[in-house]
Amino acid sequence: MIRIDSRHLRLAAALLLSVGVAIAFERSTALRGLVLPLQEITARVAAFALNALGMPVVVDGVLLTHAGGFRAAVSHGCTPILPVVFLGAVMTFGIPLRRRTRVLGLLSGAVLLTLINLLRVIALFSIGVVAPGYFVVSHEWLGQGVVIAATALIAGYWIARAVNPVRLKARP
Amino acid sequence: MSNRIAGSGVVGLAIVLFVAPGTRSFAQDDGIDIQSGVDVSDALVATDALRWVPGQIIVKYKTTPRGDDPRLGTMGFSEHLRVTGGGEYIYALSPARSRSMSVRNMSEQAESAVERMQGQPDVEYAQLNYVAHIVRIPNDPGYPQQWHYRNNGNGNDESPGGINLPDAWDRTTGATTSVVAVIDTGILPNHPDITGSQNLLDGFDMITDNFTANDGDGRDNDPTDSGDAVGPGDCGPGSRPSPDSWHGTHVAGTVGVGRTDNGAGIAGVNWNSRVVPLRALGRCGGSIADINDAIRWSAGLAVPGTPQNQHPAKVINMSLGAGAPCSASPSTQAAIDDVVAAGVTVVVAAGNEASDAQNSFPASCNNVITVAASDFNGELVRRYSNFGNVVDIMAPGGDVTADDDNDGNPDGVLSMVNGGYAYYNGTSMAAPHVAGVAALLLAQDPGLTPQAVENLIVSNAIPRSNTQCPLPCGAGLLNADINASGSTPPATLAISVNPTEFELDEGESATLNVNVTLGGAPADGITVRLRSSDDAVATISPASAVTNSMGQVQVQVSAGTRGDTELAVSIPGQTQTMTVNVDVRVVPAMGIVAALMLALLIGFFGFRRLGVARR
């Protein structure tokens, strides 16, 4: 049995807060507007990478267009914003960590999630170009699943670190 | 000073004015010193006499009459021809009566009938059926001396060297959209015939060399002609002195920079077209680098270090040249090619060396209309005009050593100079006639390409015999009376959009670019309206917008609920409509589902770890 104490409540509160932010993002156009620059940056970087990989792509705002005609928009869901919000909530409020560890965990996690998300966008667009029939299922399940799993793993790692902190052993 | 001159000749060639040497003359006309610009209004010629249809009158009754008017019947106006839209009755003399009358008697009978009817209590008014006609003879007092504009022929008000401008003016007197750039010595904006003229647009002083510029500075936005007089040796060892030419103003005056049909001064080929003065020639000529920049600037092309021309020209006149084939100055050919590609017609003077124009540029360049000079009789002026196979057309350049019309004035081209007017001769004077006619053609059909303009001018030339043109002078004498309307299909507005379809997530926005062209060129100031067939699926903001100078409009398409909609993009006055498909794709609440899954995953793992550690 797991005995519920204040630490469980803190984690639950952090997760609920994150879900609340996610819902707000889905409901509020104004909030999504704040993410537009991030969408455009994501689209630009993805286009750069795709071109570097030999896939001719032009970018117009958030719209990626392949020379062959396949086109996809980088929406707010295609940015790492929500995974970072979750990780941030967990790292900031959810678990007991030293301040330095919180900052380190949050920064490294955000960078890692951004890279994973970028790989997702590039992979999804490539699937759309090469095998457009698989794009929808890849986009709606596989891509999101990978990001969810990655976020959960990173958050879990820091939760584990909080519970069993690495301690220096004294020299014999 | 001569060391300064060397610096101004970029390619080592002096670009000079094409006024025939030693032929400047100031005329006396009926005791009026044209050069000094004194009042010449008493030289105004009476306009045409009033005329009317013989034997016809117009009567307006206070009440509708029953049958024809017996009062008019007794005067031979037996029945009315018809009733006008204004309820007036038009009466005519009966055929039986008019057969026995002269035209003069019929006119007098009509006058008598009008007089009688005007006094009748049931008549509101009665009048003669006047003949109205287009009068396109300018009332400028100097116009009678401008033989070069008259209709071609030997009759009254005609001249054998005339270019049929009165007939052409019945079609058009120019348009504000027809802009001619005159690359020359600049302009005299305070000339009495130019002051207040709406035809003068902002120009530019493209001269970089201070000595050449003679205005104390280099390039600036003031194209005022500060004079180009030089002393002995100023333009190199042994060079001769020369007074100020005011050449640019004379040339621009012929194109039509001044006020025509204003009861003062002289007329120009254009009454309403606009002129952009470019100053590229000054003391001792001008550098080809400055001229090339002036060519590009005229057309609205970018010239580093200068503001963009806000009134790009459709025609460029260059009454200048240098004594070398065009191949000696490929930069000039490149500049000409650039502006022709931009849709600008380039007119150049053939030169005044009485030799083959092949050895002069820009006369021998490609993509230009090269103009030789004709005299009062419409013949090539062999005394000075260049000729040859590169010449496209001949136009009045005049000959101030002759007075073939015996009017006491030299047969030069009369135009504006500092303080008044003067007769000049040269191919410099011939070219602006062609440039002016090109502007008239573009006023009729703004969609004409440079090639189409040249084709129209050449194909409508007045043929010349071997006697009139013993040396090659192109297609003949310039004929301004050209019907250019319908030469090109009417320019139509066209819309294009990018992208032509959207796939948007719910709530997502994207930019729709709309481009509007008129005859293939960007259409500025066109109101574009956009409408979504289903606002629930997608909305457009703004719903209407005005195109910018690039003919573009950008709007935001915002996806609403899932579905398909069509965006109709339309232009007022035309039925051009472009449809954009918007497919709003929605992954139902996937963001929230993903967030919950993420929360559950982290919660499950985190609670277990926290719980395990607790035990």
Detailed description of the structure:
The complex is a heterodimer of chains A (172) and B (615). Chain A has five helices and three strands; from the N terminus they run ααβββααα. By secondary structure, chain A is mainly alpha-helical. In chain A, β1 and β2 (63-66) form a beta hairpin. Chain B has 615 residues and is α/β, with parallel strands linked by helices. Helices cover 21% and strands 24% of the residues of chain B. A seven-stranded parallel sheet of chain B has the order 11-12-10-13-15-16-17, with helices on both faces. In chain B, strands 20, 22, 23, 25 and 27 form a five-stranded antiparallel sheet that branches. In chain B, α8 (288-298) runs parallel beside α9. Chain B is flat. The model of chain B is unreliable at 1-14 and 20-50 (pLDDT under 50). The chains are: A mainly alpha (172), B alpha/beta (615). The A-B interface holds A 1-3, 5, 7-8, 11-12, 15-16, 18-19, 22-23, 25-26, 29, 32, 60-63, 65, 71-73, 75, 77, 82-83, 86, 90, 94-95, 139-140, 144, 147-149, 151-152, 155-156, 159-160, 163-164 and B 499, 503-505, 507-508, 510-511, 587, 589-592, 594-599, 601-603, 605-614.
Topology, pairings included?
The complex is a heterodimer of chains A (172) and B (615).
Chain A: H1 6-27, H2 29-52, E1 57-60, E2 63-66, E3 71-73, H3 81-94, H4 99-130, H5 135-163
Antiparallel strand pairs in A: 1-2, 2-3
Helix pairs in contact in A: 1-3, 2-4, 3-4, 3-5, 4-5
Chain B: H1 2-8, E1 16-17, E2 28-29, E3 32-33, E4 52-61, H2 70-73, E5 79-83, E6 89-92, H3 95-99, H4 103-118, E7 123-130, E8 151-152, E9 158-159, H5 165-171, E10 179-184, E11 204-205, H6 210-213, H7 247-255, E12 274-279, H8 288-298, E13 315-318, E14 320-321, H9 330-341, E15 345-349, E16 369-374, E17 393-396, E18 413-417, E19 420-424, H10 427-444, H11 450-459, E20 493-498, E21 501-505, E22 509-518, E23 521-522, E24 527-532, E25 538-541, E26 544-546, E27 552-559, E28 563-571, E29 574-585, H12 590-614
Parallel strand pairs in B: 8-9, 10-12, 10-13, 11-12, 13-15, 15-16, 16-17, 21-29
Antiparallel strand pairs in B: 1-14, 2-3, 4-6, 4-7, 5-6, 18-19, 20-22, 22-23, 22-27, 24-26, 24-28, 25-27, 28-29
Helix pairs in contact in B: 7-10, 8-9
